[in-house]
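Pipeline run #58 for the internal structure catalog. This entry was flagged by the ingest filter as a single-chain record with no existing model, so it goes straight to prediction. Upstream metadata was stripped on purpose; only the residue string is passed forward. Reviewer on rotation: M.T. Logging verbosity set to normal.
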Amino acid sequence: MSSSVTLARVRKAGLIAAGVAGVVLLAGVGLWLALLRDTAEPVSVEEAITSFRTETEPSAATSPIPPGVYVYGTDGSETTDALTGVTHRYPASSTITVAAVDCGVTLTWRVLKGRSTEWTFCHTGEGWELRSQDERHTFYGRTQRTTYTCDRTPILPARHTVGRSWAVDCATDGATETGVARIVARRPWWPVPGGERRFSVLVQKVTTFSGDIRGRARYAFALDDVLGLPVRIDMKSRTTNDSPVGDVRYREDVVLRLLSLQPRR
């Protein structure tokens, strides 16, 4: 066999190897880009209303808060340092959907497709009690759901005494949330400019997380003292979660302001 034929075969083999390596490289880059792909689509008011009409289960229970979709002015964002890190900016408005349940109501805040919090408030002889808080966060196409169950944790006591405080005790698989809530003020507010004055009760909740989730959170709920509907919510959260690739840090800052007492249906 001539040396020229051998050299040609070597060159051909080299080109094939290079082509295979290129395909593998491109596949790896494609997989990496797919893994890093992150979207954060807002949930519109119209989408929330459609969900309320089609997904809300009929209930014989009577809600102390008129059921429906309430619109809130929204200012905030959430951030994670997982992988390359990403920040989701929240839209200028979001919704809280109120639905009746046997013990009271659920309030479901949906701001992004993949970011929501559902609170279950039960009405007892002692006032409103926080029974559970279900949170969902989605980054890079993966949704993490965490449901906290709370034990004897008021959110709006029947007696709105400023300065009154109580323990917060909630837990989820592998983590606990403990702290203190306190009534810090009772303030007037006007649901309609120039309209009748109403009052809200401001409850601040400061908690610490331990276990698989570590960190702190500070919530402030301004609740209408008649209905119990939040007229303003301030949320700040700084947590670190365990993951297969190490610690993942998360932060959220958001302020919600009720725009109307009239629910959309």
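catalog note: The chain is about 15% helix and 55% strand.
catalog note: The CA atoms of residues 220 and 238 lie 15 Å apart.
status: ready for reviewer M.T.
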